Model the fold of this input.
Amino acid sequence: MEKRTAVAISGAAHAGVLVWALLAGYFSPVEEEPPIQIASVGIVSEAEFQAALSRDPGPAAPTPEAPAAPEVQDAPETPAPREEPAPQPSPRPETPQTPPPDAAPDVAQLVAPPTTEVVTEAPDAPPPPPGAQDAPVSPRPRPRPAERITQTPTPAPPPLVETAPDVEVATEPSPEPPVEEQVEPQEQAAPEETTTAETTEADTPAAAEVEALVTSLAPEDSPRPGRRPNRPAPAQTQTQTASAASTAATSTETATASAPATTPSEPRTVNTEDALREAVAGGGSAAQEGPQLTEGQKDGFRLAVQACWDLGAVSTDTLRTVIEVRFEMRRDGFPVSSSIRLADSRGGTPASTQIALERARSAIIGCARQNGGYDLPDESYEEWKEIVVVFDPTQRF
Amino acid sequence: MFNVAFFRRLAVSVLMGAAVLAGSMTTPASAELRIVIRDPNLSPMPFAVPTFVARNPAATDLANDITRVIAADLSNTGLFREIPRDAHVGRIDSFDAPIQFSDWTAINSRALITGSVLVEGDGRIVVQFRLYDVDAGAPLGEGLQFVGTADGWRRMAHKVADAAYSRITGEGPYFDSRVVFVSEVGPKDARQKRIGVMDYDGANVQYLTSSDSIVLAPRFSPDGSRIIYTGYESGFPKVTVIDVASLAKRTVGGVDQNMSFAPRFSPDGSRVVYSAEVAGNTDLYLLDIGSGSQTRLTSAPSIETAPDFSPDGSQIVFESDRSGAPQLYVMNAAGGEGTRISFGEGRYGTPVWSPRNDFIAFTKQNAGRFHIGVMRTDGSEERLLTGAFLDEGPTWAPNGRVVMFTRETAGANGAPALYTVDISGRNLQRAATPAAASDPAWGPLLR
Done:
């Protein structure tokens, strides 16, 4: 009995060793080393070597046939070097000959600048056009054509306020905030005119040329892609799995299956800092309902707002102002105008911050209007129902 | 014999899992989407300015002229782009009529300027205007009305443009200002120079001196009533002040019979800092105009020149070759050694302190080219705005946003001209002058 046990143990051990050796590739054929190249070497004496050197080389090896010389054709007439034009006095923009000196200063017309008596005036502005209020929340609005000139007379505004003559103007802009903009989508009725490509003269010529070329070749506009169709399957799978969670095996399988839906499948174009920000700020959204936005969807939103973010006519202080704007989104892809607010700012004055906020607000609302709402997936609404956009123009100045 | 790769993958997986777990534990839960945008559109803002409404027949031509000046002022900044009147969909037939903003959004206009002109019986003209934010569909600021004489219509146009420019950009105004410069005529080796004054856009040129003596580097006093320059009326360079209204001239400062040059007013107009060469050494001196007393500010054996006050008058930036090549230094207005602020390659000169106290503009010569550049008052953030055969002598617009300078072309027929450039380095433009011109100095805003 004991012997049988020992044999069994020994057999099992040997079998284990054999299995291990098999798995470890012990019995796999060993890759043969490449054969060593052996060259036979003979020893010759110096006399033999000299004799070999002085021997005739023998018949020459056939040389490759030289290609036929190209047929000489009449060479195109070589342009004669252009003679440098003899230096000729070019017409000068100014009088080439010394004019006689003035006998006296030309001051006949010299007087103090005409005084412009600026009169304080604050004429009431005409009433704003109708419909300048927030549009009510509605399902996906349809673009409507731009309004044209009205054919019916509109009531005249109230008369101007009586002016006090010869009083300096108070040119401060009205502190009142502008009227809430309408969020209704509006069809782009006229194409954007060609913009001026500006380069700094101190830039290298090559860089300037490249920038000008890129600007000239870049399309001015492109049609917006259609809204991406809903993808209910992954969301349902994830939701059902989360609610069921009956067995660990099932959860594991579901998580594995749903992983591709939540993993960015498109090439990332954001830089490291953006990725870090998103990882920190958006990482917690995993607990939200629905699939997360892909990086492509986030980039699409970013590019859409950026296209309308216009700082072409702002102060240099504004170009140094970084603002953080927070706003709410409606499920139809339109921002809630009244929710747009300044969350944070740095690097600017109160005035520049205010202008930066106005431009950001105009970009957020204007692009939504131009595009018929932002192209964000409905199933991820929980993730983008509140958005924070950091507008940072400092790299452009 | 162990499968090393397998264990390596296992270890990496464990570490990644731990990292993910740690990350999920430290990441705050957030239900907001966060986006960072860094690339704004810097193209000029399209605007529309329909011809101002002439409120009586006598104002028809004037209304058109004023409208053209306003459009030119804004467009020349490089920050705005006028939408041609031919492209307008809407018409402004009455200054008080309500605005149909859809007519202006249809042509992508972002701003709209409307106005009217009236010529009164006594010849005075009345200009009214309003500015609208087309995107917002609302006025941007209050309407304004200007009243002036007929010969001051350009000033009223400039004031309208200034108001629109400031309200939209947030920058200070500068259109209603003048520039003093040196007008140059004749061949390069026998130039005749005289001091001229013009509107910032080259209009209304007037000459203050005759061309029988050399004049250099004129500068306005802070209130614009006087101009100080280096004159050779006596055959020797002397600091001279001329009263703009009466054209009365007088020599100020100077040390005995030595050369004095490169004068600049202090911000309050009570003092003048200038260079004087005494015993072969050029130093800076401060003159109190009221008392006539002079103070020597520097005493180095090197050449100190091209001084300019800071906006608060407490500091002076100047050029010195004490390090072997001309560089920029800042010192207390009471004098002293100064602190060097320029450290780049090349030679620096003609520093000018921005009226906003944020930058110092300068001329830089490096690698055979001249540049106009700006740097912070401590020398940091140096940026070159231009580059050419010869650029020199920058001067700031009253709002500190635009720099004017002299650019001279090469060759025997080269001639100087005045150019402007935005502080961003964009929008380089030649200023209109009736002849060759150099040494510009921007004056204060007119009152």
